[in-house]
Every structure is written in C-alpha cells, then in structure tokens.
Amino acid sequence: MEKPSPASLFLLIHLLVQLGFIVRVLMRPHREPASRIAWVVVILAFSVAGIGAYIFFGETNLGRSRVERMRAILKALPDMSTAPEIPDTVFPADIPLRYTHLFQLGKTVNGFDPLGGNQARLMSDSNATIEAMVADIDRARDHVHLLFYIWLPDNNGLRVVEALKRAAARGVTCRAMADGIGSRLMIHSEHWRAMRKAGVRLAIALAIGNPLLRLLRGRIDLRNHRKIVVVDHTITYCGSQNCADPEFRIKAKYAPWVDAMIRFEGPIARQNQYLFAADWGAETGEDLSHLLRQPIAPLRDGFPAQVIGTGPTVRYSAMPEVFESLMYAARKDLVITTPYYVPDEAMQAALCASARRGVETTIIFPAHNDSWIVGAASRSYYKDLLTAGVRIFEYQGGLLHTKSLTVDGEVTLIGSANMDRRSFELNYENNILLYDRALTGDVRRRQASYIAQSRPVTGETLAGWTGRRRLWNNTIAMLGPVL
What is the pTM of this model? Predict the structure, then answer.
C-alpha cells in the first residue's frame, strides 16, 4: 500500500484543523446564526488566514485571570439593589407605568434600581464640558474619579491633567484611568508621569504590554470605551465625549468631533461610581467598596435615572435589548444619533417596525465616518430603513459622535454605546437612562440642531449610487457579524 505523500498528509491535517475550528464556531454559545455562517465562510475561504482571524478576533476572550479578578471585585462590592444607604423611600423613582418596563430591563444588567432626586444639565459643547469638569475638580473636597477611552495630551486633555494635579496637591484623592490603546499617547507622555509624581493614582485599563504575550492571554481589541467622571459622591458626567479637543488632531480631517455630555448631580453618581470601582479594582486590586457604602445626602426633588453598564463580562445581549426595548416603547417619535450603525437583525427590525406603526422615526449619522468599513456597512441598511419610513439624515458639520436616543420627548438614553457589534459584545460601555421631559427636551433640541446641519437621505439619493458602491456596501455589511 502506497504511503501518502507529505503534501497529502499536510492537506489532511489542514482540513482536520479547519473542521475543528468550524465545529468550535458552531458550538460556541451566544452566537447568532449570521455570525456563525460568516465565520464558517471566513475559515473556509481564507484558510490559514481565516483560522488566524478567528483565533485572535472570533471569541470574546478577556483571559481567565482577568475574568476571575473581575468576578472577585464584583463579589466584594455591595449589592446596590439592597444597599440600606440608598433605599427607594429616600430617592423614589416616579416613573409612569408605560416606561417602568424599560427601567426593569435596565435593572437586570447591573442590578441598579432607577433612583429619583437627580438634577442635570446638557453641556453646550465639548469645550464647555471640559470647563465644567475642571471647575468641579477644582471644587472637589474628598475624591475625583476619572475614566476615559481616549485621553489626549492636547489643550483640553492637559487642562484636566493640571486640574487633577492641583486637586491632589490639596489632599483630594484622585484616581484616573485610561484605556491602554485609546489613550496610549497620554499614557506614554511626560504628563502621565507628572500626574503620578504629583500624587494622582493612575491605572491603565486593559493594558497591552507585550502584544504577542497579550494575544495569548486574550483578545487585544477588547477595550474600555467608557467615559466616567465622579466627584465627591454626588457629581457625575455621562455621554459620548472623550477627554480631548473637538479638533481631535489624531484624526483632524474628520473634525470637529461633535459630542453630547450631561452633567448629573444626585444619587445617580453612586451607580457610575460602582462602574468605576469595578474597573479600578480589576486593574489595580484596590477595593473601593467603602465608598459605595457611604450615605448619600438627600437632594432637592429631581428626575429618576439609571446607569446601564455593559461589557464582555456582562450578558452579551444587554445593550441590544435596551436599544430595541426603547424603540418598541416609542408611540409618537423616536430620534437616534449614532456614528456607528452595524445592527443585528433584531435591532434593524425594531427600528423599521417603529416607523411602520406610525412613530415618526429619525436616525442621524455622520456624513463622513472615520471608519470607512463601518460607514459602508451602515449605508447598506439605508434602503430597508427608508422603505419602512425611517427618516435618515447625514450630518455635515463634522463627525457626529453623539450617541443619544429620545422617546416621545420624555425618555433619554445617553452614553458611550454605539449601535454596532463592538459596543454590544467587545467594549465596556456606560449609559444613563432617564425620564424627564425638561432634560429630554434639551436633548431633543440638540438632536434637532444636528438635523438642521444635515442632508436628508432619500430614495433618489440611493438611486444615484453606482452599482459598484452598492456592491461594496453590501459586501462589507455581509462581514458585519465578524467586524
């Protein structure tokens, strides 16, 4: 009997390896059929490169040690739903029955009840946000906690650096954390070292270290995309803005970055504090649970709000469920702004269904996206949205980076999460869901200002696209489940 040649033997081994990875794709939990099919196609079509892509990017793998450390930190933190320091009788959340299911869903993500007694102000622009943050840091008496995905050593970034140094010099405990990739320019700068020397406690979120060794421990592209500032237990910020100038000089050709940030004051700060404490503890090992047990001073009457923090250590469906539930809750109007739209099938269907049942449904995208892949994928969904009756606008005044959703002029969701699979499964995100007509009115007017600087997308717009462009958009969108 003739022995198989080395080439035949190699081919057999390769096919067995391919088959093994295909079986792994099919057996992985929490993966949509479209995602399974996409990865099977990638592995079959690109062979060794496809297998390599799956090894590095196919599974949400933070690394066993990091996951165990995060679980230990979360176990040590107090249960916010039963904490005696913040009972519902002190901060009742007066929410109409038609919206209670939204906050009940939100509670299943982190265990946070909606808390009343909050006041807030929508910042006028990015520079005003930094000015307000610096003023709050300069008034801090006990502590300042700060976490950003992108923190640049530019004018606004350095203003925050100097404010933290001043606060530390006054004896205020300052803890600052930045993502290892998004903030690498700041982390490797002299300003980072100067903050540490001044007494600011620093941490790197999801540090890379040696890239090759990091790949062996878990996916390198899992990032902390949150934007959190907490000052003295009662002040917090939430929105889309990073700690940088709106000119965003690392991607200046898309500038200005157009963001929305809300400054909150009230018990809602405690829930953002919880997210920060979990992230900080996972990176440094420091237990901040004592801060979460301190009583919150009663404030004047205010609106109910709830923090929703998602990420790869939270159930994978949490963020899509929140978005889709808000879409289905709309009865009169639904307005969305997002820079990155690569939805799953259920989210696309929810948005189309909103328009079909008579809700005035509007979504605003940037005309020029800093991610050409996401920009192309987003446009592949335009035809179905328009056919359903969704109004689409493309913002012309820079890169619209605001992530906001308003329902019937009463409910707002604002934060860091995009409507794409990266935000759903790979990034740590933080958002705040709130019920307040006045604040939602402010957000709605901001959304209207975006529309005023946008061009409507119509059927005629799509008819003017070349066949090559449509083919390109649809081809990129087909890879959405693996993006």
Answer: 0.90
